[in-house]
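Reading a protein record of the kind used here takes little practice once its layout is understood. An example of such a record is reproduced below.
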Amino acid sequence: MARRFKEHDLRPVTELNRVWDFGFLGDVDPDSVDVASLEFTDRMAVPGCFDATPAYAGKRGLAAYRTRVVLHDDTPHRLILNGVHHWCRVFVGEKRLRDHVGGFTRFAADIVNHPAGETDVVVLVDNRFDYERCPLHLEYFDWYHFGGIARSAEIHRLGTLWIDALKIVTEDIATCRVSLTIDYGAVEAPGPTCLAVTCDDQVVVCETVDLVAASGRIQRTIELAGAALWSPEAPNLHMLHVRLGEDDMRERIGIRQVRVAGQQILVNDRPVRLLGFCRHEAHPQFGCGLPEALLVADVQQLRDMGCNFVRGSHYPQDVRFLDLCDEAGICVWNEAIGWQHEARQLTDQHFLEAQLAHIDEMVAMSFNRPSVILWGILNESHSHDPQCRPAYETLLGHLRQLDSTRPVTYACNHPFDDVCMDLVDVVSINCYAGWYSGWYSEDIADFPDDLDRVIAHLDSLGQGDKPLILSEIGAGAIPGWRDWHEARWSEQYQAMLLDAVIYNLFMDRERVCGLSIWQFCDCRSSESVSRILGRPRGFNNKGVVDEYRRPKLAYDVVKRLFLALTGGW
């Protein structure tokens, strides 16, 4: 099950998290594949990444997954896949249903006019880099692109009337007033239909609605008397259950509002200081298909260090992780996939259309999560190039159309010539003072001056009245290498750098309202030789824990300072 709670009582749902039949086809054109003649010579776990397993480690190519399902009757059913990397084509009973681009978002394939009984689901999965087919995954990105059905899968019997989506927005925190939007679909116009809504088992809506079309939207405003607000300090959650005719959907909500006021980010009108990490979903044995035990362990370590913030780098986070963040009071910056895009992509309509579709899916799967307080796009892309500004306008504008309740941002690594900062609600700067060379110094001691220069420049641009987040800073440390000279790549150097950064950011000045250290855990980098030569072990080693979540010296430094800043939560 993808969620931490049962989403449906009335709707039959079959989980497909199991061992599937598997075949690795290699360098094959998907359009040439005859599904009926496929041979499945192996087995593969779903969810999981096939190229993280011993038999297929590092392989790129087309793969085929197959499992058998039962369709309860001949009414519509829906296959839901929460993440397939990077490109896939879905078949049911040898009938091609759809293709999908991008590996980190939930999508569905509807099964209609199919007879009841057993049938095969086949998913062709391609983890090769192919810009024409999948412009969202690019080979030069600084993380390893695993392949496979990496997140959970399930099949739903929709019947003749079904709920497509629920959207809950907090309108007023004083009265706990929320708006509820119910999108529905049907085989034909249902006519008079029972609508019932409960919150924590208390009835808040019970009426008959006349559904005069085969698809539509129902909107209601309700007050949840006695409900408690959600915040990082008190992450109170409530269960909303909607029944429409013979279908139902359950959603867990947190009543809270996020807004920007001057240089602060406010949750429920109270300033929040964001302390945490950038986080990749990666592990040597599981790729990006992390098991639930590891998701829980990640949250435990984050909370142990006093974190209340995670920047999802550089793609939307697993809904299971977001559920855990809802419960733990960890605020999340959820980010669309991207890394150092240039004008050649940002002026390409093919790329922009893929990004817009990806953003649609990111927002749809994460909208109701109270932990998600920021939307982000295009990490370290060319926001300093005037040719790229229209793309920033398009993507940020689209985010605001989809969701006006959360601030938007992007991580910038060239603040002194950026031309897009006026488009965001929160300014976010990546700075590797003490590590790389650039507009910042290679000397840790110069970090405060570097930061002050950025702040003065933002003020000169008229951006001084916006919140400022230091969205990346860090140093690589090879796990286990400790050196009396405190040289770069030693655990001592990383610990020393983060000690200085955290002290100067939050103990010596208040202008910066958020910090996401790069990064939580070490992760495998890209396969390009030029990248690997600058990455010992072939890993980005800037984690405060290694790829197996074993703490480095910096772990205790961050924990000491974060807990001092927060009073231990």
